[in-house]
Amino acid sequence: MSRIDKKQAILDTALTLFVSQGFYATSTASIAKQAGVATGTLFHHFASKEALMNHLYISIKQEFADGIQSQISQKGDLEKDAQHLWQVAINWAMANPLKQEFFQQYSMSPSIASQVRQQAMNSILGFMGELIHQGQKAGVLADYPLPLMLESCHGQYLAATRYFLDNPESWKDETYKQSSFAMFWNAMKT
């Protein structure tokens, strides 16, 4: 197994164990053993379990951002653009249930350092803040403080994806899709 493969095996195993057992119940030894690497190899790549968790959080958040940002289609109608983005984001969650479960468990958890959460929100998902700012300037979105708006969007996304992961048949129902976006949009607009 190459060095890159070993690192990826550690990350994949940590993701599975953190979701199934929890951060505190998962030992670095169990991650290494299930990944098929020596514990020293794990510590070669990650200084601590916390560093591993933070890396995992940032890398999955980046994957999420890349996946949805590549599908942004700004056609000039902010509401339609936001609806498209909302559906793309939930589609990502439905296609990546283990990674979304990780977000469900750890997005608001003290297991993720505050500065790591801020990095994810401000740097990786910075395009979201820019879209909100544009909507505020245009008078379409409420003029609340941007950090609060971002956290509200994030919370609504987590609530919607929790529901759809628990009830996947509902995501196939247009009424539920439209309703989930309407609730999101109504919380944001002026």
TrEMBL record:
Pfam families: TetR_N
PROSITE patterns: HTH_TETR_1 (PS01081), HTH_TETR_2 (PS50977)
Keyword Glycoprotein part of the UniProt annotation: no
HTH tetR-type domain location: 4-64
Organism domain of life: Bacteria
Any one GO molecular-function label of the UniProt entry: DNA binding
Residue ranges of the annotated DNA-binding region, renumbered to this chain: 27-46
DNA-binding recorded as keyword: yes
Entry keyword set: DNA-binding
Protein name, UniProt field: Transcriptional regulator, TetR family
